[in-house]
Amino acid sequence: MRILLINHYAGSSKLGMEYRPYYLAKEWVKNGHDVTIIASSFSHVRSVQPEVKSNFETQNIDGIKYIWLKTKAYQGNSIKRFFNILEFVFKLFFKSSYIAKTFKPDVVIASSTYPLDIYPAYRIAKKAKAKLVYEIHDLWPLSPMEIGGYSKRHPLIILMQAAEKFCYKKSDLVISILPKTLEHCVSHGLEPTKWHHIPNGISLERSENQQEIPIQQKNILEQIRIAHKYIIGYTGSIGSANAVKDFILAAYLLKNENVAFVVIGKGAEKENLEKLKNENNLRNVYFIEPVPKKSILKVLNILDFLFIGLKKQNLFRFGVSPNKLFDYMLSGKPIIQAIDAGNDIVSEAKCGFTIEPENPQAIAGAIRKIIALPQNEIIEMGKNGKDYVIQNHDYKIIANKFLEIIK
User: Fold this and answer.
1) What is the DSSP string of 358-394?
2) Using one digit for the tens of pLDDT, what is the confidence trace for 365-384?
3) What pLDDT, in 10s, does the model give residues 346-355?
4) Smallest Cα–Cα separation from 275: which of 238, 241, 224?
C-alpha cells in the first residue's frame, strides 16, 4: 500500500517532535508499505529543523520519504504562525496534482492538528482515487475558541469551522487520538460509522536504546538521591498549562519531610517558579536542565514517583492522550496525575492516583499516601502501568490497528 501522510509539524527521532507520524510510518515501512510524509520545513515544536534549500525537497529518513515544503520561520503563536500555516497549505494545494501523479497514493491522511490541510489532501486523494483519512489531534476551531477566547464570528474561526465540516463530510474515515470526540464529530456532520479512536503511543525500540544521561544532570540527580529518601519528579515543558506551580507549592507543604521535588525541563514559567522556590527557601526543590529524549527513561529510573498535571480546562472533556504519561508508565514508577478529563488512564491502569488539578494539598496528600504503602504495592503499581502501556500503546500495535481500520 502507498500511504501519504500530511502533517505540518512531523518530525523524527533526530529532529524531535512531532513523533507520531514518524513512528507510525516506521512501522508501516517495516510491514512493506511505501510511506511518504509531507511536512513544513519549519515547526515550533521541533528541536532541530531540517536543512531545506528548495521549495519542494525530498529526503529519506530511516526508509521513510519526507517531502519538505519550505516555509518561513515564526515564534510561538504569533500571527506569523498563521501565515506559516497558510503558506504550507497553499503550497501543498498547488502541488497536489504533481503529488497525486508522482506518488500515486492509495491512502491520504490529513493530520496537521488544524483542519485546513483537508483541502489539499482531498484534492490529492480525488486525483489519485485514494481513500481519504482525517486524523484528529485537537478539535479545531473549538480549541482556539475555548482556550484562546476567540468568538465564533472571528474570521479565523469561520474559516476553521468550514474546514472541520468539510473533513467530516468528505473523509472516508476519521481517526481520533482523543477518545471522547464521537458525539462532537457527529454533531458537525460525521457519519458515526466512520469514527475510530487510536491513541498516542510509545516506541519500545527507542526505550531499549537509551543513551546515558548528560554528566551534569546525572551528577545533580545522584546528589539529590543521597540527600533525600524519596524523589518525585516532573519532566517536560514548564508552562502555566502544565500546572507545575502547584507541584512547587506542594513541596512547600512537605518541606519538613524527606521528599525531593525535581523539575526537569525548560519553559516560560521556569524563571517565575525558581523565584517562588527562592522566596520560600525551598531546599527540597531542584530545577534541572532538560535531557535528550533518548535519555529520559534513564532519568525516570532514578526517580521514585512521577507527577503530571494540567490546568482545569473544559476542553479536556473529550479526553487526553499525553505522550509524557506513556513515558512515565513505561518507566514502571507510580504516577500522581492532577488532570480532570473525559478519560483517566492512570486509574484504568491502576498505576497511581488521579487527583483534583490545581490543588497543592491534593498533591501532597497523594505523595504521603504512596509513601505509606508497602513496598510490594508500590512495585505492583509501577508494573501495572508498564504492562498497560506496552499492551495498549506500543506503536507496533497502534500502527497495525491503523492499517486494519484503513483496509
Assistant:
1) S-HHHHHHHHHHHHTS-HHHHHHHHHHHHHHHHHHHB
2) 999 999 999 999 999 999 99
3) 999 999 999 9
4) 238
